[in-house]
Design goal:
The two termini are 27 Å apart. A 7-stranded parallel β-sheet has the order 3-2-1-4-5-6-7, with helices on both faces. It is globular. It has one domain: Rossmann fold (3-Layer(aba) Sandwich). Helix 1 (20-31) packs across helix 9 (220-231), helix 3 runs parallel beside helix 4 and helix 4 (108-136) runs parallel beside helix 6. The relative contact order is 0.15. It has 251 residues and is of the alpha/beta class. It has 9 helices and 7 strands. 47% of the residues lie in helices and 15% in strands. Bound molecules: NADP nicotinamide-adenine-dinucleotide phosphate. The site of NADP nicotinamide-adenine-dinucleotide phosphate has 29 residues, from helix 1, strand 2 and helix 7.
Length: 251
Amino acid sequence: MSGYGDLSGKCALITGGGRGIGRAIALEFAAAGANVAINYVGPADEAAETAVECAKFGVKACIVEADVSAAEQVAAMFEQTLAELGRVDILVNNAGITRDGLLLRLADEDYDRVLAVNLRGAFLCMRQAAKLMLKQRSGRIISLSSVVALRGNAGQVNYAASKAGLIGMTKSLARELAGRGVTVNALAPGFIQTAMTDVLPEAAKAKMLATIPAGRMGRPEDVAAAAHFLASDAAAYITGQVLAVDGGMAM
Ligand code: NAP
């Protein structure tokens, strides 16, 4: 754990929490004492394994299946999370996909699907979470944007649009909820070692690596530490912000 602060008694829902960055966030939060609901959409194995690891910290950990782009599944996911954990203090919109291609070759369905999961999914989850957090008069919403939203990336117009959209959504919702004790922020990771980046050709990875001042790819734990900070009491007065976790890529 990075040590930003105690999350004991808090309940966190992490979309796509079974692997990659989401898994690291679930473990980081659990290590800080938070109960965690780990959302997944594919086979349950990795989410279940992550829940077992989280529970070793003595917290409640459950898994919740839902495609975040489907409103009725998102509603059911929140119902299940409330049934298992009792409340939602922290929402992490982490679920995300890429379907890369240069604009002229980008299929309509690849544009639509990336926007549906990355942007609509966050919207649907934020709406459910905001209802609960307004009543509680407290809460934290953290969304995974990307360095690509800030700088653009050839071959990712759909992904970059979704991640830039998340920033506008974050700032707008931050304004709506700031007076009610709820903060809304985004993380903009750079080039982080997960399944999402493992699939890139070696040449593309080397090219990307050359643009990172820190000289290394990020680890999921680097992003999890920043999420922990934004979820903690230490960040109570920070809202509507985009925190880059990118080894200096986007400065
Ligand atoms: P990853 O390893 O590919 O994992 C993606 C996660 O999203 C998985 O847990 C997956 O669930 C979940 N997911 C995908 N579609 C979903 C859907 N329709 N409903 C619910 N969950 C869904 O990705 P990652 O690298 O950890 O990335 C996590 C987030 O950080 C993403 O939003 C990504 O865009 C963002 N990000 C990543 C990087 C990077 O370099 N890796 C950089 C910037 C931003 P299943 O396991 O059930 O399939």
